[in-house]
Amino acid sequence: MNPPALDHEAANHEAAQREPRVVGTGRATAALTGVLSAAVALGVGELAAGVVGSSSSPVVAVSDAAVRATPEGLKEFAIATFGAADKAVLVGGVLVVVLLWAVGTGLAARRRPAAGVVAVGLFGLLGAVAAVTGPTGSPLDAVPSVLAGIAGVGVLLALLPRLQALAAGPDPGRRGVLLAGGAALGAAVVAGGGGLVLQRRFAVADAREDLVLPDPTDPAPALPDGADLAGAVDGLTPLLTSADDFYRVDTAISVPQLDPSTWALSVTGMVDRPGSITLAQLFARPDVVERDITLTCVSNEVGGTLAGSARWLGVPLGPLLREFGVQSGADQLLCRSSDGMTIGTPTRAALEVPDAMLAFGMNGAPLPVEHGFPVRMVVPGLYGYVSACKWLTGIEATTFDAQDAYWVQRGWAAEGPIRIASRIDTPVSDAAAGTVVVAGVAWAQGTGIDLVEVRVDDGEWRRAELAPEATVDLWRQWYLPVQLRSGEHQVSVRATDADGRRQPEEQAPPFPSGATGWHTITVDVA
Ligand SMILES: Nc1nc2c(c(=O)[nH]1)N[C@H]1C(S)=C(S)[C@@H](COP(=O)(O)O)O[C@H]1N2
Ligand SMILES: [Mo]
Q: Of 299, 302, 311, 290, whose CA–CA distance to 247 is shortest?
């Protein structure tokens, strides 16, 4: 038992008897006080982040830490369930936790102001630790959370007695209390809004708009006639994916903003001539290539949408790496992005896969910021997690024995060749009886697709029509008209590559090296 608390209860009880109207208001006002102090804390956190130029406001820092700490299974689930919205969902979740924490803080402070101070202090501390321990964390990144904590404590202590006085009964200071609460809310909004505006100083959207890409010295080969059937077949995925529709998978809660005028790529480690190269130097190279390449995520489920095709503009990796003198023993290129991500690419692939490149253009425009502006890697035939480092700032030649990249530390396979795949895009789940056009895409990067077959229920496998092949690194569209009677039908697809290797039937989940199995859909035919 706690005597002071008991006294407090007794006092409350008396107050309640005197003034039954306000029973319970003490709790509500205390909770509200907690929420107001948290709001001011978050606002000050954003403001401080905007002033010091750190991307680690408390919410972002804690969300980033949550991404790092999330077990692979849950991450998989989040990517599969929420897709590109996974980060919004996470940040929303963090805000809900903050809200609950704030309510708890207010309630605790009602009994013991010290407990409230500790709760707010812990909130600031957690943010600071999360920020500093991030892969690119520096002591400066603790500043927003520390200031947020101090502001939160200050507001809590200033507001609590006033709100409590109000709750205890009609009080001449009522107006003053409302003013204090309103002022706190106003301060939170102004600080938070101001912070978000200040953070825009570091945004590179304008610099991206102004960037003039070089013309390719080696443009993409013309697409053969009929290579894109999307206009002719309803529901078929277009051959090239617009940047807006392109899937996005990364761990960045706040998208890295790299100034193209100061960007440079360092090449270090097991190289004879370590050094760096700027964007202007990349643009000025005699070999600027443009290629149509399908990029795929290892987390893609059979039939999933974590794959996209774009026209990439960039500089071939092989010749560039040879200029730096990558040593023969270095079997891994540890690619680093500005947000601390590491992606380990097999050196052999970077040197030998035709069209492996440092890309700065996507579909005729500079890379979108979310897709790695100003420079990312693209290696046809390797899943993104081992090849497609976005916001690239460094390449360290090393060995697979010496260092594990981010995803490999989390159990994913060290080398990630893209598995042959085929997907039904249409129909989705319903169709009208009669002739139904089944259509989709198939890919086997580096080899090319030779055959796509479709089966309805337990029928024969039938050869689908293939659109002409553009390149072996781009997915290939296919379609097949089939007769469907009313009722429920299973439709399956399987592909065979140009080496005669058929897509395996055996179902495997994405972890640890990519999903396998034939895509089968159920169609309700009316
Ligand atoms: N810096 C950075 N680069 C990254 C990632 C990341 O999390 N951070 N994710 C990789 C993964 S898993 C994939 S599938 C591709 C996705 O590229 P996109 O978002 O442009 O489609 O980027 C790769 N490059
Ligand atoms: Mo991925």
A: 299
Residue 72 is predicted with a pLDDT of 83
**Cα dihedral 286, 322, 349, 285 in deg (nearest 10):** -10
Question: What span, in angstroms and rounded, lies between the C-alpha atoms of 258 and 202?
Answer: 8
Residue 399: which residues within 8 A CB-CB, separation 6 or more? 270, 329, 330, 331, 332
How far are the Cα atoms of 62, 91, 93 from residue 97, in angstroms, in the given order? 11, 10, 6
216 C-alpha to center of ligand 2: Å? 28
Neighbouring C-beta atoms of residue 410, cutoff 10 Å: 16
Q: Give CA–CA dist 18/38, Å, rounded.
A: 32
Helix (H) or strand (E) holding 110: helix 86-111
pTM over 0.85: yes
Write out the CATH class of domain 421-525: mainly beta
Q: Relative to the CA of 339, which ligand 1 atom is closest?
A: 1
Residue nearest to atom 15 of ligand 1 (CA): 384
User: Angle at the Cα of 473 (from 471 to 477), degrees rounded to 5?
Assistant: 70
pLDDT of 171: 55
Q: Give domain limits for the chain.
A: 16-202, 264-409, 421-525
Cα(339)–Cα(342) distance, rounded to whole angstroms?
9
Give the count of beta carbons closer than 10 Å to the beta carbon of residue 269.
21
Averages of pLDDT over runs of 10 residues in the chain (526 residues) are: 41 44 65 93 94 88 90 83 85 93 92 90 93 90 95 91 71 71 93 92 94 98 95 96 96 93 98 98 98 97 97 98 97 96 98 97 98 98 98 98 96 97 97 98 98 98 98 98 98 98 97 97 97
Q: Which ligand is nearest to the CA of 387?
A: 1
Q: What is the pLDDT of residue 14?
A: 46
Closest CA to 444 of 495, 385, 388, 509: 495
Three-state secondary structure along 59-85? Answer: HHHHHHHHHHHCCHHHHHHHHHHHHHH
363 DSSP 8-state letter: T
Q: For strands 519-525 and 430-431, give the pairing.
A: parallel
With a 6 Å cutoff on the Cβ, whether 345 touches ligand 1 is: no
Contact criterion met (CB below 8 Å) for 426 and 438: yes
Rounded Cα–Cα distance for residues 396 and 268 (Å): 5
Tell me the torsion sign for CA atoms 123, 125, 126, 132: positive
- Name the CATH superfamily, with its identifier, for domain 264-409: Oxidoreductase, molybdopterin-binding domain (3.90.420.10)
Dist. CA 519–CA 284, nearest whole Å? 45
Q: Ligand 2 mean position to 248 CA, how many Å?
A: 9
